[in-house]
Amino acid sequence: MKLKDKNCIATGGAGSLGVATARLFLDEGANVVLVDRDEDALKAAAAGLPSEHVETVAADVSSANDVQHYVERAVARFGPIDVLFSNAGNFGAVAPIADYPEDVFDAVQAVHVRGAFLAAKHAVPKMRDGGSIVITSSVAGTRGDAGVYAYITAKHAQVGLMRCLAKELAPRRIRVNTIHPGPVDNGFQHAVEDGLGREMGVDGAAFFDQLIPLGRHGGADEIARSVLYLASDDSSFTTGTTLMVDGGMSA
Asked: Which residues are the active-site residues?
């Protein structure tokens, strides 16, 4: 029971990684607050989870008022926060720089960068010492690809945010790390591959498999196990790091 009686928040909670991580956290004894913009998807995600240990909050992670609200709801329901899993994300578009839509670029930064910043800003004062913050970045946060301007920029920015937080919060023994999944077999990645495939004129899924030394996409459960490592005391001497879970894609 690596998270016994720990109180956790997971944004992007209705997505495959959010749900897989919530299940694993619950199996390890945690209470979990799932946050997502899509209220119907949240209800569906929570339907198979033990209600006595789960709270759901519909929120826009880029809204300071919404973030403050979900943090207050989490503390009111379960008490001080032990784990913040900042996992909300959107992809944007794939286009040449001259054609890249400015509103799309701004929207992606708002969710990934502002969302993670606001989550930390409002959750940290409510966290117990010795806790953990895990931010979902991506293998994209370690590389560049033509046309993927919003997503790749945002994923790099999250690493900078993480490193600043790790330095500030070390005296409180709050560890802060980013996790960097490679391509995962889920709806989010399929949408990414469809966009890239159209732009490049190739099969997007096959293209990515060729880039991964292990030769396949990851599973949400596989990524969740790495999130658990960073969330639990198994990583008690790990902070300020970028954990690659990408099948060797960044090697």
From this structure: 151
